[in-house]
Amino acid sequence: MRSFKLNPILLSLAASISFSAFSSEATAPDSQGSESSLKLEQIVVTAQKKVEDIQSVPVSIVALGADKLGNMKMRNSQEIVSQAPNVQMLGSNGDAQLVLGMRGVTQSDYSPNGSGAVALYVDEVYMGATPLASGVQLFDIDRVEMLLGPQGTLYGKNTTGGAANIMTTRPQMLGTSGYLDVGVGNFGYKTVSGAFDTELADNWGARLAFTSSENDGFVENKLANVENPSQIDEQAMRFSLMYEGDNLNGILRVHKSRSRANHSSILLIEADGGGENGGVGLGYTGYAREDLGFHETESNRVEEKEFDLTGVNLTLNYTVEDYTLTSITSFDSGEYFVPEDADGSPFKLLEDDFFAETDQFTQDIRVSSSYGGAFNFIAGLFYSSDSTDGATRYRWLADYGDGIMALSNNCEDTFFYGCYYANSYEQSRSTKAIYLHSTFDVTKAVSLTFGLRHTRDTIEIDNYSSWYGEAENSYYQESDGPILGSLGLDNESDEIDDANTSGKLGVDWKIADNLLVYGAYSTGYRGSAFNGFAFAPEEFTSVEPEELSAWEFGFKSTLQNGRTRLNGAVFHYNYENQQFLIFDAGLQYLLNAGESEIQGAELQLTTQATNKLTINAGVGLLDAEYVSMRYAGVDLSGNTLPSSPEVNVNLMLDYDLWESDNLWVQLHYDGSYISKQYFEPFNDDRLAQPAYSIHNARVNVTFGDESHKVGLYVKNLTDKEYVTYSVDLVADWNGLFFFRGAPRTYGIDYKYTF
Fold first, then answer.
1. pLDDT tens, 579-624?
2. Choosing a second label site near 424 at 20 to 30 A (CA), which of 346, 444, 531, 650?
């Protein structure tokens, strides 16, 4: 591995542990109430399917509570990564699709029928399929937990990278309470959210939460009478009904979200600035962006993307003696439509539509022990099934410009100019699993962890067809224009059956009450998949499961009598069969990479530096490269994996500027640094995102009894221009394709709590 070796990391880890032990001894309790007696609040997580202090869990976890999420003004699940070391967000469809990466394990396949390598859970319900994950909105959240590393035992498949848990706020069972939060900002931003919570009876409580946001778009469209891209217009609600009895408790949640917003910000630029090919323009049509700024466009097609997500889930816990039986049942339905002007030009050069509708049912039933002795366990059965109807339409050169005007094209004359290419299919998946997670206390200080999960997967794809027709007749209608012929796929069907056994073996040693060290070997896998972007017979491919084995060593320390937390970890992965999507001469192939190695480290610090200042900081180091990887006769061994920056740093500061009986003024800052990263396996510098930093700030003013709070905020303070995804479209379109990041935004909000 070329960037760094584990030896110096292990030395730094040892030094950190030594510092932890020294600091805990050197800081004595202060009975006079000075700053040395300050303590951080306890962080409680459910990462191991039970309530635990985060410092006692031998897993690398990043947890963000409601206060931190509010200060960072997070709107959707893509934004949760900014304060987590070695966690990346890959915007492979802009704001339209969540793609998380952890420690270099990510997803390049953005087809509607696929699932990512980092599992997303909302209230312990898996939201894997694209139409489901894309509809998740962050509102009325209690906390977000990010578990780094493979989670093959308790979470199962599609966790080669890790898992993200979004836990919503439960009914409080404390009379009647709630809040209303309204705000405005630049680019016409308007938002309102709130919750109403009430105790219905001695054992019953209910909570209704909602959110609504809209803006005018942050990319300026220079075409007359055409709206700006990157608008948002979304609403969501959630109703929760909870019962708490002596032995039985349960919560029923019903949720619905809706988004009708213009598609995210696409940037297609002429390759090499036109210098190496005579300036022939995008798609060899003569058109180039010329004098347009980074956040400007001349897009002729700005249509609404549509996401709808509806679901219901029921969680029941029944306790008898030393056992708790838990049942989690869910049904979710998501619809997904993304119209895309991929050329970002005033002409119909390359314009796409992506459709999908998914229905999912899941059932998790488990039993947990609470023995007073050395041994305890969690054992369970899991079942899920989902069905997806998917379709994709590409339009190529429905017209093309000579730089002055559009020219009509006839598909049958060229089989290229003026054609649309479409596919459709039906996919069904089912997963059955049995799992065991157990711990055994060898001594009071040393514990062993053993976990095992066996999974059987079935994927069936039916009625896979592809065809072509006149592109000009396929706009603004639900069905295609006249079909001129088949592309070679006619009601094709196929099936994949997989079985996998994943597990974990670990040991943790509680050296002192304030210091835990741990080591573990674990495995994870990502299930097989079909290419949802196949049009020609040679594209109709499937991929084998990804498999990952991981060594991890870490520590968790609480210093200065509870005033500081310092946690760290080092890891080494062997990664086989990474799934990736690649473009080649107008075709898209879903393939498996050979073998990769990933190693790195994380360090997280939280400290109550003074009675006014709280600091959260993290650093992630990563070295992720292909060991064995060839494509089209090119040896890519030694190249860096996509979305694997060598260094990323996060920092959060909260400073109480003023506090009295009637007024509290708090200053908040959060920022992140990400070193250079690639988004594709060829490591083309033209498609790379250089190192960059994002800075955000906020001022909170709280009045009276803390029922009124006004906040002023700015995000991307320096107005940094950056991209979140890229694709090589040089061969067919003489273009480099990017998704832009958001520019500087700012605003004011007011929150009333009752």
1. 888 777 667 888 888 899 999 999 999 999 999 999 999 999 999 9
2. 346
